[in-house]
Design brief:
Blueprint (H helix, E strand, L loop, with lengths): L8 E5 L5 E2 L8 E2 L3 H14 L3 E3 L9 H9 L6 E6 L6 H14 L4 E5 L5 H6 L6 H21 L1 E5 L4 E6 L12 E3 L4 H8 L4 E5 L3 H17 L5 E10 L3 H11 L5 H14 L3 H10 L7 E3 L2 E2 L12 E4 L1 H14 L1 E7 L3 H12 L20 E2 L9 E2 L5
Parallel strand pairs: 1-4, 1-15, 4-5, 5-6, 6-9, 9-10, 10-11, 11-14, 11-15
Antiparallel strand pairs: 2-3, 7-8, 12-13, 13-14, 16-17
Length: 389
């Protein structure tokens, strides 16, 4: 069996800071709105996505609270929510995680976010240096995992002290919900190797992703562990390659050079993230160098922090690029597109058949077996295809 024989685990994204059709413009933009998030969540639940990433940060809705709301409107969708060491105690986060896993009936995934914007962390009361944040996170998760797995924890650490900590109710998932994590620095990779279940990378080139996977595997093996891998990517999938590239250009058609410069300056000034630096290095803020690998387009990273690349092309083209990542060891994709509601449908309808993912869940049959073509939705219904025509 080859690495690509198994279909990818495909998640979508809830744009909890807002959504839009053009980067760098408020034309056709959509504000942060709980009703809109529910539309996206119920759509992707039906379309067959396995879960959603809910982002974290001062510009986003709080991920645990939003996930609890969306869980009530969905059936199978899983929720990847952020645990941020230092923002609250491990005991409090354990209670949040256990309750959300219980009320969602085992649909919780946990995303460890230890870094990002140093400026934002300072606002949250975290003043640790970059590498020290991972030392702190290691102690945090000793307590957090003990509580979720056994209901009890003790630690007298350098950063975390927990004396006879207890958790009243266990999570549904045993021994605990899975831990996801992304970080590109040496300290982050060493931290991940001893703890996480799935290591995430932003959408770098296949060569860069392959090097990173090899490094994480080696670090995990040194600790007697195995780690699985996922990738965070945007998608612009259209019926033809030319249509897809035209829509990539359209997405940044209202983006000014001044807005790009301001965004790039802010990223460099406010973040000590190695991963963010690697994203910026892909394009250097230049519009003329955005295809950084075949069909891998870095235009989104001109103004978006974090994940800044998209796979662009027809379903067959994008599927071929995804298989290249699968051959490296990627088994999970966390995807998005602008606007997120419409693009969830495009990716499902165009790309899913090419990568072996099934039709929408609970799809009710609409005929007694006859083939039909869409007739415009008139009173007479759709058109039945005449045999032999």
């Amino acid at each position: 069996m080859t690495k690509t024989d198994n279909p990818l685990n495909f998640l979508w994204f809830i744009p909890s800071s807002g959504d839009g059709a053009y980067l760098g413009s408020d034309d056709l933009s959509r504000p942060s709105d709980p009703g809109y998030f529910r539309e996206i969540a119920t759509a992707v639940d039906r379309l067959g996505y396995s879960g959603v990433l809910i982002p974290t940060g001062v510009a986003c809705e709080e991920s645990f609270v939003l996930a609890a709301n969306l869980a009530a409107f969905t059936e199978k969708l899983k929720f990847l929510v952020a645990v941020r060491p230092g923002i609250a105690s491990p005991a409090y986060y354990a209670r949040l995680a256990s309750t959300l896993d219980r009320v969602s009936n085992g649909r919780l995934l946990l995303n460890i976010v230890a870094g990002g914007s140093a400026q934002e962390l300072a606002g949250d009361g975290v003043f640790l240096a970059h590498d020290e944040r991972y030392e702190h996170a290691d102690e945090f998760f000793q307590v957090f995992n003990q509580l979720l797995e056994t209901g009890k924890a003790n630690l007298d650490g350098k950063y975390i002290k927990a004396h006879n900590a207890q958790l009243g109710f266990p999570p549904v998932q045993e021994p605990r919900p899975p831990l996801y994590f992304g970080g590109s620095s040496d300290a982050a990779i060493e931290f991940s190797a001893g703890l996480v279940d799935k290591y995430l990378t932003w959408g770098e080139t296949p060569d860069q992703v392959g090097e990173k996977i090899a490094k994480v595997r080696k670090a995990a093996a040194a600790k007697g562990r195995e780690v699985t891998f996922g990738i965070r990517l945007h998608f612009i999938v259209r019926e033809t390659d030319d249509e897809a590239w035209a829509d990539a250009d359209r997405l940044i058609s209202k983006l000014s050079d001044e807005t790009i410069a301001a965004a790039q300056e802010g990223f460099a000034k406010n973040s000590d993230s190695v991963g963010q630096a690697r994203m910026l290095a892909l394009h250097g803020g230049r519009r003329d160098k955005l295809e950084v690998a075949p069909n891998l387009w870095a235009g989104i990273g001109l103004v978006r922090s974090g994940a800044g690349t998209a796979l662009v092309g027809s379903p067959k083209t994008v599927a071929a690029r995804l298989r290249e990542y699968q051959d490296l060891g990627i088994d999970t994709v966390i995807a998005s597109g602008y606007p997120h509601l419409e693009e969830a449908y495009r990716v499902s309808e165009l790309l899913f058949p090419e990568i072996g993912l099934g039709p929408p869940r609970n799809q009710i049959r609409s005929t007694f077996g006859e083939h039909q073509v869409f007739g415009g939705g008139g009173h007479g219904g759709n058109l039945r295809v005449v045999a032999g025509s």
